[in-house]
């Protein structure tokens, strides 16, 4: 586009998106709070104290105590570790598996690609939570179960993404040249296809993180995830719901923790997408 | 248009086939012996053998799969281990209630989400835009089960503005019984002019549908905003400006229709998401839909029922995507060419 | 019709167009020529206030309206109805999901042209005046060719009763044979209806067939201006000479 011709679109400003920055800061606080839980928590985790149960927020317990007397603030801080761990694990597993499959599909083309993409379609046809639910029912409830159950529904997105990137790169001339020279396929994939897939995958990861947090909280709320005595936000909501009408703090704070974390991830994800993937950016 | 329809239909059928296979596989993974579950823990060896025979549990797996497919196609979706009724009948009773809830939620989402997105696009980078972005981001980040609990506590328990649970006041079944047409309570009440049940259902619908509507509303608002901003940057808006149209006019009369394309396909996506999210909401509000049925089935490891629910929701999802694809072909004439 | 004095258009501080004087009288055809990047399109668009990101100084008078100080409402009133725009890529200029007839009808209603039953007549006349079949009004933009789209844009101007057409490289995106059609339409309209035309083009051959006066721009500045016949036959500026020599 000619620089002197009147541009129709506003030229994108160079100032960083303040909204995204806010999300980044928020997320940093959440991560720090969880990682530094042992030092920040006023009480040791998972210590039921029957005498102190169901106390409303006070100076001694900033967020009150739960049904068995544990300090809610402590539980939330430690619960953050569980939730963040699950999110990272899910994203790592699904992106690794998904991208590998997708790159193979996109690069190889032909019937292999068709088969892989059809399988991807079938998995995508299952609403994620449903598939996760079905799987979590089959396996014993635990953190590992949740990670596996969610990863199983998440990998197809990465496969689709990686397949389209790989397919477009596979047709570029320098790849053709490498093939003619006899460079083996795996090397081409590692040298050319993977680095170019990195940015869209990164963007997708950041966009997905919030959803993973919500899904894992839902599974734990249903009792299919972390079990006692592990602290986990969804589990805390489930444990507190029967006491909710008279002890609002037991459910409110863990729920807020989920909300804030998912919110931070989502805002940051959108900001990263705007910054790294100008094609899909919306300012 | 016909060719496009045929192609999309073929693809959908393939996917459904895959879904059936996947469901079958999952079913076989559920712990517990189905024969024991059906016949009961105190069954004699003969009764267990009879149960195995009946369900073909001793046949090789591929045969079982074929039998399963055959049964599905002939309408036999198995017998629920818990209710002892055909799963198909159970689903037939439970599905309309979920449809009612999700349908209302999506209606709210579209009616609120699209205009909000237009507002944000129109006043981009100004206060309304920031407000919409922030609120919609909150809406997609809120845990559904928690929101359900919170709204129930505040508006039903504490303030008493809305009922706490259920689909409608069941005492009305005796005073003004409902004639069933579509099995969707609110629709039937409207058609037959049964105002007591209609208003009762409406009251009961408010809180749960608002909860289910949160995520779709946020997502639809965001997508409408993004698509509209994108469309507003296209060259044709310059000509429209040159013809004398104002900014709002350009957005709503010329940019909105093509921008609604991605929004439409989004609706299919959130439809399935809403049904499943609805499960969690149904649990909190004791809504008599698929969610309640699924929860009970999961608790009792009722394999045929779980499979039935899974299959139904997946098929509905595929159908929803198909409908939206067809709608897109209709709305945007350029899609048909692909 | 159009009166421009000391126009300066800047983007992010950089001077993109500097036009000390530009006039277009009734029925006149003025052409701005130059290479890509000379600032000619920017100049054209600024006349209707269609350069929202630019800082503009100077004096622009279009059909009696001071463009730089007019209220948005006044500006919108003259856009389309008194001064029409024809753009470079014709199909991109038309909203993809709107039938041509719908677009025209909306524009006519916007400016209060004609009553309801007369609208169909006006539209049909305008479309036929540019040698198009009235059936084209039912088409979508992607169903017609570039030349047809360009002529439709001109038909819009006619239907709205515009007295001046601003044409930004109207033929650059078209095939040679089609170009001739469009130019033919423009020339005929000038003769039959006395339409004034401000044409921006890098195609000197085209300009020589239609323009009364010519402005030559280079890197944002006006290097020469005057009657077309004189400028094109005996250019005084070396740059103009270069451009003419580059003609096949």
Question: Which tags fit this structure?
Answer:
heterotrimer, A: mainly alpha, 10 helices, C: 248 residues, alpha/beta, four-stranded antiparallel β-sheet, 10 strands
What are the low-pLDDT stretches of chain A, counting only 5+ consecutive residues below 50? 1-15
Task: Name the structural class of chain B.
Answer: mainly alpha
Enumerate how many helices of chain A there are, as a single number. 10
Beta content of chain A: under 5%
* Number of strand elements of chain A: 0
Uncertain residue ranges of chain B = none
Proportion in β-strands of chain B: under 5%
Shape type of chain B: globular
Distance linking N and C termini of chain A = 20 Å
Mean pLDDT of chain A: 80
Mean pLDDT across all amino acids of chain B: 83
Gyration radius of chain B (Cα, Å) is: 24 Å
The largest sheet of chain B is: none
Can I get a quick summary?
By secondary structure, chain B is mostly helical. Chain B has helices spanning 2-29, 34-39, 45-55, 61-73, 87-122, 127-141, 144-158, 172-175, 185-191, 195-232, 236-242, 247-285, 290-299, 303-331, 333-336. Chain B is built from 15 helices and no strands.
Question: Could you explain the architecture of this structure?
Answer:
The complex is a heterotrimer of chains A (about 280), B (about 350) and C (about 250). Chain A has about 280 residues and is an all-alpha fold. Chain A is built from 10 helices and no strands. Chain A has helices spanning about 20-35, 35-40, 70-110, 110-125, 130-140, 145-170, 175-180, 185-220, 235-240, 250-275. In chain A, helix 3 (about 70-110) runs antiparallel to helix 8, helix 3 (about 70-110) packs parallel to helix 10 and helix 4 packs antiparallel against helix 6. The longest helix of chain A has about 35 residues, at about 70-110. Residues about 1-15 of chain A have low confidence and may be disordered. With about 350 residues, chain B is mainly α. The longest helix of chain B is centred in the C-terminal third of the chain and has 39 residues, at about 245-285. Chain C is of the alpha/beta class. Chain C contains 9 helices and 10 strands. Chain C has a 6-stranded mixed sheet, with helices on both faces. In chain C, a hairpin with a 2-residue loop joins strand 4 and strand 5. The chains are: A mainly alpha (about 280), B mainly alpha (about 350), C alpha/beta (about 250). Chains in contact: A-B, A-C, B-C. At the A-B interface, helix 4, helix 5, helix 8 and helix 10 of A face helix 1, helix 6, helix 7, helix 10 and helix 12 of B.
